[in-house]
Amino acid sequence: MSILSIQGLTKHYGKITAVDHLDLEVEKGMSFGILGPNGSGKTTTLGIILGIIHQNAGAFSWFEGKYGAWHRHHIGALLETPNFYPYLDAVDNLRLIAHIKRVKEPRIDYLLELVNLHHRRHSKFRTFSLGMKQRLAIAAAMIGDPEVLIFDEPTNGLDPQGIAEVRQTLKEIAEMGKTIIMASHILDEVEKVCSHVAIIKDGKLLASGTVGAIISDDMLVEVAAGDLPALKAAMEQLPAVRRIDEEDGKLILYLAEEMAPAELNKMAFEQGLALSHLRVVKKSLESEFLEITGGAKAN
Fold this sequence. Notes:
- This protein is an alpha/beta fold.
- It is 31% helix and 30% strand.
- The protein has helices spanning 42-49, 90-101, 108-114, 130-141, 160-175, 187-193, 211-214, 228-235, 261-270, 286-293; strands at 2-13, 16-27, 31-35, 57-62, 75-78, 148-152, 179-184, 196-201, 204-210, 219-225, 241-247, 250-255, 275-282.
- The strands form three sheets. Strands 5-6-7-3-8-9 form a six-stranded mixed sheet, sandwiched between helices. It has a four-stranded antiparallel sheet with strand order 11-12-10-13, covered by helices on one side.
- A hairpin with a 2-residue loop joins strand 11 (241-247) and strand 12.
């Protein structure tokens, strides 16, 4: 089932184009990362799909229209720095959120256990560390048992321990079968939490797919020959070939280890196949992403 479908989404701020004809598809159960450097349009995109910001062009739909105008009731979101009453404890802050959301049975103890805050349930919010505040905000987003959780830079400003705790919480939520949409500028974060990723820059989509296919250390090589099925069968025999995609009359080889193009050419020739195309694409989008983010893989 399609949870979110985005077609040609565009947003201008004066002469600046924050989102540029963006197309995305998020399926049920995905942990979907929107990955890009600061200023790439991630937050604007989340604001649009949550109805906070109005787009200039394009469209989006939630749940294939199943809930109509009430789709927002099935989405939990954390976009900004957590805001709670500092003099209230965790339980009372969550009760207040449940009242605002009109949720009669918010399962507060369960949610506090989930985000590893049950032992601090009667502590005032002002005594919480940044990581604890963020985890309480995740619990608040889950009140009402939404089908989709949206997070914008959920580990921003946290220390290493806080980052690890929030990431673990997000992984546990994903394992429950929830659909997660998370914007981040940190490659490592998306690798650890997400199953699928879209990489954007200047509001434009660079690539979208599974994390394993998009972000990996694989060497990508394009090859083609007159007899493509025979070439594919031959390439499948190579131990280094982890995966083969077929696109526009060419094969895209995902190689788990470096292999000289001449070696591939020789191997094909020995099988009686003359290559009409041979090109090393790149190791992956990782090097490109690190370049445009100034090396943001750390954390």
